[in-house]
Backbone:
């Protein structure tokens, strides 16, 4: 999230919290695709991490991008920490360890998404390469220790950094040493949201397996195909993971709001300053327990929007649904991730088919799959088959959904071609992580340094 929300309308009651989510309902002709992708900046000389400051630091990249694009700066305590397109059509933000993120504009087709991603990568390379900086497309930082990793001067991250070790063992690794590709998708009603939430929660472990791309940590293999996926198993289980209540046939906006109310907060913003609120839940905030923490003591709609942005379930509900399971990866993956989910969720016939395909998958089934995937990838067992076989069937459904959409580019090609990189994973039976591990053990000669060449943008 590039910019935290400031909306000072007071919250009068629970109905407003639910209505905030329901306001995301959109007619089908207004559905859009918002793609986010993160990457690690590094100095080509020595494959070292890039700090915030200095003439060749991340601040300088942001300032160069601001001059090139004309976007508005996002300022935190006097420091530039991101950029936003003046009409809200896209933003650039920093993750805690300097991961450089594009939050794309809401677009109509995967063709547009891919053009947007390619344009962004070309623009940021134009600014960064004269500084000797490139970007790494992996799901986990392969070389730098947590101590080596720079920290960005962003107020919300200071609060999170102090809080994470209190609620899990891997939260700081999540913050500072992982990257993802995500897509944000719309719904037309509460019932449509429910179907999409349930289908995508069931298939999120498959997404993690297909995009598994983080097999190295601290310069050596870490025993995982998706180290990032493993990290999410013990980051902060009060606010992350697989939400069992979402599997209910009656699940709706109010259920999500009730869950969110009982998750500890991170912060509120008053007078441009971030106040640490990790000692209370939003429900306690609503009850007036913050009178000793902030002057007015009472929550606003902006506080609610910001709180929702600090929840990390496998699929996150705001005024859209965020698919959060995939590792970051090479540029082809930036287009493949939204294509995968749009094909499954944006065509009515395909959504019917995939809902039927997953209908009898229980929470326990999906939980077991989610636990197996970080280490085993698409070889993980699922019932009497493997995720490789499940992936073959699901990719066929996604491809049909993209064909049914019929969104063609100027050359007459539909969006289905963007799935080719995932078809390759299933066809060869190995993930990107396994391919890297094979390279590490053979032609890379036991070194992870070649990853900075082969997986660089």
Residues:
């Amino acid at each position: 999230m590039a910019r935290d929300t400031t909306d000072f309308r007071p919250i009068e009651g629970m109905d407003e919290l639910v209505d905030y989510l329901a306001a995301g309902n959109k007619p089908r002709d207004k559905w859009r695709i918002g793609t986010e992708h993160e990457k690690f900046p590094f100095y080509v000389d020595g494959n070292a991490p890039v700090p915030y400051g200095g003439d060749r630091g991340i601040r300088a990249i942001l300032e160069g991008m601001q001059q090139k694009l004309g976007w508005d700066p996002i300022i935190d305590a006097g420091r530039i920490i991101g950029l936003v397109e003046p009409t809200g059509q896209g933003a650039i933000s920093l993750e805690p360890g300097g991961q450089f993120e594009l939050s794309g504009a809401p677009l109509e087709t995967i063709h547009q998404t891919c053009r947007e991603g390619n344009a962004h990568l070309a623009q940021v390379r134009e600014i960064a390469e004269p500084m000797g900086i490139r970007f790494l497309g992996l799901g986990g930082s392969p070389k730098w220790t947590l101590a080596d990793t720079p920290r960005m001067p962003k107020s919300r991250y200071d609060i999170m950094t102090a809080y994470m070790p209190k609620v899990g063992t891997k939260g700081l690794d999540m913050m500072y040493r992982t990257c993802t590709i995500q897509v944000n998708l719309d719904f037309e009603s509460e019932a449509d949201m429910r179907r999409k939430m349930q289908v995508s929660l069931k298939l999120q472990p498959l997404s993690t397996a297909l995009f598994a791309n983080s097999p190295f940590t601290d310069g050596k293999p870490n025993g995982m195909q998706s180290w990032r996926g493993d990290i999410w198993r013990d980051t902060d289980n009060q606010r992350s993971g697989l939400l069992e209540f979402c599997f209910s046939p009656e699940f709706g906006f109010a259920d999500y709001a009730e869950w969110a109310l009982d998750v500890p907060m991170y912060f509120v913003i008053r007078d441009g300053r971030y106040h640490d609120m990790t000692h209370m839940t939003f429900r306690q905030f609503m009850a007036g327990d913050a009178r000793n923490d902030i002057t007015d003591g009472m929550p606003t709609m902006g506080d609610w929007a910001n709180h929702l942005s600090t929840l990390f379930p496998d699929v996150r509900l705001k005024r859209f649904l965020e698919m959060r399971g995939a590792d970051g990866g090479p540029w082809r993956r930036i287009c493949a991730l939204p294509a995968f989910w749009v094909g499954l969720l944006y065509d009515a016939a395909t959504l019917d088919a995939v809902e039927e395909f997953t209908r009898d998958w229980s929470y326990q089934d999906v939980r077991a799959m989610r636990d197996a995937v970080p280490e085993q990838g698409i070889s993980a067992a699922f019932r009497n088959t493997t995720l490789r076989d499940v992936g073959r069937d699901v990719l066929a459904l996604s491809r049909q959904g993209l064909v049914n959409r019929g969104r063609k580019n100027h050359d007459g090609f539909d969006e289905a071609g963007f799935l080719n990189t995932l078809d390759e994973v299933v066809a060869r039976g190995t993930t990107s992580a396994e391919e890297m591990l094979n390279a590490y053990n053979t032609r890379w000669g036991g070194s992870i340094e070649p990853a900075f060449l082969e997986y660089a943008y």
